[in-house]
TrEMBL record:
GO molecular function annotations of the record: ATP binding; dethiobiotin synthase activity; magnesium ion binding; protein homodimerization activity
Keywords in alphabetical order: ATP-binding, Biotin biosynthesis, Cytoplasm, Ligase, Magnesium, Metal-binding, Nucleotide-binding
Record's GO cellular component terms: cytosol
Organism name: Roseateles toxinivorans
Keyword flag Ligase: yes
Active site: 37
Domain of life, per lineage: Bacteria
Sequence positions that bind Mg(2+): 16, 54, 115
Name of protein: ATP-dependent dethiobiotin synthetase BioD
Record field: catalytic activity: (7R,8S)-7,8-diammoniononanoate + CO2 + ATP = (4R,5S)-dethiobiotin + ADP + phosphate + 3 H(+)
Purpose: Catalyzes a mechanistically unusual reaction, the ATP-dependent insertion of CO2 between the N7 and N8 nitrogen atoms of 7,8-diaminopelargonic acid (DAPA, also called 7,8-diammoniononanoate) to form a ureido ring.
Similarity comment: family membership: Belongs to the dethiobiotin synthetase family.
Amino acid sequence: MRGLFITGTDTEIGKTCVSAGLTHRFAQAGLKVAAIKPIAAGQDFIDGRWINEDVQQLREAGNLGLSDAEVGPLQFRAACAPHIAARLEDREIEREPLLAAVCRVADRADVAVIEGVGGFRVPLTADWDTADLAVDLRLPVVLVVGLRLGCINHALLTAEAIRSRGLSLAGWVANTVDPDMPHLQDNLQALERHLDAPCWGLVPRLESPTPAVVAAALNHHAGQFLADYLTPASA
């Protein structure tokens, strides 16, 4: 499997928008891209079927014609922590079947963009969490930092947790959650100074954060990383 694991400093900070933007950018470069959200919690009943908004956004950003079930192999109705959502539906989150489902789809692509759920360490079972999922996938990590009060602490702790698991922090994307955040530039400078990884872009607050618009906010680091990362596979 070749790709990226996208995590965030919290829930609701733009992981899916950034994942879709990266997917769009890589597809525009001529690559076959699979955008996958292994676990998705929160569905709405629309036109006779249950739909997860994040799964829909990622499916539309990709270029492999994947189904909802392929993009989101494990989906729950309630918008809450996955282990709670699973309990509410009397279902189990099974590690090996989930990993196998992700790998089957990722193997069809040149690059997979795999989005986590919530922050970096979200419980999935009694002894498995989303950090373990990232380790199982063995992919470089991109951290989405939601720009709002407290983001420096959240970002540095998350970066520390990523590296403590032996994973590479390939880069980070700043997403403007609070456009009125005081001292935004000072916060960005602190993040750049302390995260010890390249910033892949600053996404402004957008009324319509389509994959193409988000992709346009990403900088050269995303493309350069992908070129460097894929070179050994094509050499």
